[in-house]
Amino acid sequence: MQEVKEQRKAKEKEARKEKQELRRKEQMHKLQLLTEEERENLKKQAQALLQERRGQHASKRSKLEHAQQHGPDLVIDLDFEGLMSGSELKHLCQQLCYSYSANGRVANPCHLHLVGFKGDVKEAAERQINGLPNWVVTKTQDSLLHHFSQRKDKLVYLTADSETELDVLDASSIYVIGGLVDHNRYKGLCQQRAQEAGISTARLPIKKFVELESRAVLTVNHVVQIMVEMFNRQDWKAVLDDVLPPRKRAGYHAAKTESKMRRKGGEDGCRVDVISDPTPCRTIREDVAEVEEVDAAEVIDEAAKVVDNK
């Protein structure tokens, strides 16, 4: 079964490479049809775009550095050595990328800590996340309690199993998120660990504002995004509406099944063609590990590179 899965992934990877090469050739062909003046204008646009992006990156980095001194503390506890498979570690690394990106997008970021950053998690992250050494975060192999030994009374572990519902955020508290991808194999583990360590716990007030399909367990990056947005907006309903994915909401799967049936046969047995807006392709930029939409600007950038090489 594993061998078949690896073969399928290899084929998909090869197909992506072929598609990228075809796209590159198409871009080069279009570029060759331009006049010298059009090429020069294109190059100037690309240079201006590059300068703008550098400015945005510098501004974001400045915000994150300021947050390390003055922002509220938000912690991802990665001290779950040996509890995740290789595939789950890969998913965790992706979630860390999205978490870092979400924190950098808000006006006033949090001071992000990665504690228990060691062993399998550290190896997977350093292998998978390009640009990780440039992240403006606090990374430590120390445990949560050791890292915050002088501020233990301020720790609040966020877990869906807590009996305490989080209402108002306290900037002096240190909110902790369990960095564990386990597909619900270890239910209640974070709550148990926090209780054994004498750490306060709290759960997000999700049920108060959003009706979910099942148990309110979210990915690491969704919890991080909810917290950083809440520190900036102070509106649970608005933040939860914006962050929680549709698949988590009650009635989503039933509606999706009904939609599929309609597309397949229609209510009267006729085929129904449904046209929807295309979802933008997304990529994790290697330099700052942030998520951006790929748009026409990328084509201009690529075209400018070709011009430089001619």
From TrEMBL:
Keywords: Methyltransferase, S-adenosyl-L-methionine, Transferase. One of its GO terms (molecular function) is tRNA binding. GO terms for biological process: tRNA N1-guanine methylation. Residues 1-29 have a biased composition (Basic and acidic residues). One of its GO terms (cellular component) is nucleus. InterPro entries: MT_TRM10-typ, MT_TRM10-typ_sf, tRNA_m1G_MeTrfase_euk. Its EC number is 2.1.1.221. Residues 60-251 form the SAM-dependent MTase TRM10-type domain. PROSITE patterns: SAM_MT_TRM10 (PS51675). Residues 1-38, 49-68 are annotated as: Disordered. It catalyses: guanosine(9) in tRNA + S-adenosyl-L-methionine = N(1)-methylguanosine(9) in tRNA + S-adenosyl-L-homocysteine + H(+). PANTHER family: TRNA (GUANINE-9-) METHYLTRANSFERASE (PTHR13563), TRNA METHYLTRANSFERASE 10 HOMOLOG A (PTHR13563:SF13). This is tRNA (guanine(9)-N(1))-methyltransferase. It comes from Chlamydomonas eustigma.
